[in-house]
Automatic annotation (TrEMBL):
InterPro entries: ABATE, ABATE_dom_sf, Znf_CGNR. This is Zinc finger CGNR domain-containing protein. It comes from the Bacteria. The lineage of its organism: Bacteria, Bacillati, Actinomycetota, Actinomycetes, Mycobacteriales. Residues 137-180 form the Zinc finger CGNR domain.
């Protein structure tokens, strides 16, 4: 593990959120899809279950995508992360739950709007990544026909392909076939 469990989980959650609009259309098209995403990643606290909440999470998705797109420009990425931390009014506090007994940070009240809690947690996870000098772990899939994002948590930062569309296998099979056809 390169980062704390909650940081890695939150970075993955951010990547999945961004990819929910980059692969096979908008996969966050209704409240049921939002609930499924939130339940999958264990988001707790207030849920309004209305169109405004869904739209605010979609806006967060767009903001997070800008951070991935700026990953090659540290100053720009830091500006986006700082803006997100400020807009979410992040206020860290230590907590633990029966399902996750290790101490970890929460950055917003369970009563704050969903997008605000998610944004604060994701901004802090991204801040951890930046503080560790690991911003280059935020990547866009290297497959020519894919625009999905990924968090490369491999030890040597060698990940190039997302896990949304089997891109790595498709690229390796294509390269193999190309080599075989040149013999």
């Amino acid at each position: 593990m390169l980062f704390t469990y909650d940081t890695e989980l939150t970075l993955r959650a951010a990547g999945v959120l961004i990819n929910s609009d980059r692969v096979d259309g908008d996969q966050l098209s209704d409240l049921a899809a939002l609930d499924e995403y939130l339940d999958h990643f264990g988001w707790t606290g207030r849920r309004d279950h209305d169109a405004a909440e869904l739209e605010s999470v979609r806006r967060l998705r767009t903001r997070l995508a800008r951070i991935w797109e700026a990953a090659d420009d540290e100053t720009r990425a830091v500006g986006h992360v700082n803006a997100l931390l400020a807009d979410t009014k992040a206020s860290p506090w230590l907590t633990r739950h029966p399902e996750m007994p290790e101490w970890h940070l929460h950055l917003a009240s369970i009563h704050d709007p969903l997008w605000q809690r998610m944004g604060a947690e994701m901004a802090m996870a991204l801040a951890d990544l930046i503080r560790a000098g690991e911003l280059r772990r935020l990547k866009i899939c290297a497959a020519p026909d894919c625009h999905a994002v990924l968090v490369d948590l491999s030890r040597n930062r060698s990940g190039k392909f997302c896990d949304t569309g089997n891109c790595g296998n498709r690229q390796h099979v294509a390269a193999y076939r190309e080599r075989r056809s040149n013999k």
